[in-house]
Specification:
Elements lengths: L1 H15 L3 E6 L5 H6 L9 E7 L11 E3 L3 H9 L3 E3 L21 E9 L2 E10 L7 H52 L6 H25 L3 E3 H16 L5 E8 L3 E3 H22 L5 E11 L2 E8 L15 H14 L3 E6 L6 E7 L3
Parallel strand pairs: 8-10
Antiparallel strand pairs: 1-2, 1-6, 2-3, 4-5, 5-6, 7-9, 10-11, 11-13, 12-13
């Protein structure tokens, strides 16, 4: 949205050969409202400065015109073009202290209308006194119509993105709540410390996904990069600094959509926690290798450790425990994949292998 606003003001300044172009919008919650919580007055009664090429940049999101105030406010309120050669001499002029507008003499303001609704107003200003011609008025009106359409589309995209973000967060929180309920229903009693530690790691695995998404600005992310970060986080949370438990993440950096990447992060988190809690229990040294490969049938994930191995008489149908139960259900039911657990090929430790189809 900010990029769209900046582009409109810059291009308008160039095309109109003026010294400043500014855009004010209704229903804009800038830093002023968010930081100071000044929401007593309805926000639709304010025209908030959201972009400008000539006014004080520090005021963007903070400076505003009360409803109907000033030449720009009147242009919005009455849906008309207002053009004056000497703005300061006009009694309708409303000065925003600190805006830096005192260097501009002439001003033309037009309403921004989208689908018959006023969404704000735009103005252009010049340092030298200038009498705006009919052609200039017509051109600025045409530019403003295009700007209003572009702003509406940008707002729709922004709204959809925010809704998608809230949807993801809600789903992830519901997943954490479901895991906690499963943990409460277990016959095996865990200490509050263990429950909190496992939950923290699950939350951190989801947080890592969102962290990478916020950095990249795209809706897909490399799984290998994600799991490397996750391994560092979990290692720091679970491994004794005095031990030499090595966690390696190798393979193909497969790009996946956010939700599938989140599911894989949770699966890997459970497998890594399981390897540390059971395979490396009471050990000062050991190795865990996490491998991701992009194969013809989908993603192949293996987590292999050289720890104490599976207990004698282990039955994968009945003895998985909560963490591996979560993995088994997520892989086979949610992602229509396969799950296998057994002794490591070296004969020491445990190997879990998962295959997830990519569609």
């Amino acid at each position: 949205m900010n990029e769209t606003l900046d582009l409109i003001t810059r291009r308008t300044t160039e095309v109109m050969h003026v010294d400043s172009c500014s855009i004010y919008l209704y229903n804009f919650y800038g830093e002023r409202e968010l930081l100071n919580n000044e929401l007593d007055e309805p926000n639709e009664d304010k025209l908030v400065l959201v972009a400008s090429t000539g006014l004080n940049k520090e005021g963007i999101g903070w400076f505003y015109l009360p409803h109907g105030a000033g030449l720009t406010g009147l242009a919005a309120e009455h849906r008309e073009v207002i053009a004056v050669t000497d703005a300061f001499a006009d009694k309708r002029f409303y000065r925003i202290v600190g805006s830096g507008e005192s260097k501009f003499y002439s001003l033309m303001a037009v309403p921004l209308v989208s689908h018959g609704k006023i969404i704000g107003a735009a103005n252009i200003q010049t340092v030298e006194r200038h009498e705006f011609t009919a052609d200039e008025i017509e051109l600025f009106g045409f530019i403003s119509e295009l700007a209003a359409t572009a702003l509406e589309k940008a707002q729709l995209v922004h709204t959809a993105t925010v809704q998608e973000m809230h949807h993801r967060v809600k789903n992830n929180l519901q997943t954490i709540a479901m895991l906690l309920r499963l943990q409460m229903a277990q016959d095996k009693k865990l200490s509050p410390h263990d429950v909190l530690n496992e939950t923290i790691n699950r939350v951190l695995s989801i947080a890592t996904v969102h962290e990478i998404l916020s950095e990249s600005g795209v809706d897909k992310l490399g799984v290998l990069d994600l799991i490397k970060r996750l391994a560092v986080t979990i290692s720091g949370n679970m491994v004794n600094p005095e031990s030499t438990i090595n966690i390696s993440v190798v393979g193909d950096n497969i790009k996946l959509p956010a939700q599938k990447a989140t599911n894989l992060a949770l699966v890997t988190n459970e497998l890594l926690q399981n390897a540390l809690e059971h395979g490396m229990a009471d050990r000062d040294k050991g190795n865990i290798i996490i491998t991701y490969k992009h194969e013809q049938n989908g993603i192949n994930l293996t987590v292999c450790d050289d720890g104490r191995g599976l207990p004698s008489g282990f039955n994968p149908e009945t003895d998985l425990g909560l963490g591996l139960d979560i993995v088994h259900a997520s892989v086979t039911e949610d992602m229509q994949g396969t799950f296998q657990i057994g002794a490591a090929e070296s004969g020491t430790g445990t190997k879990v292998e998962i295959t997830i189809p990519l569609r």
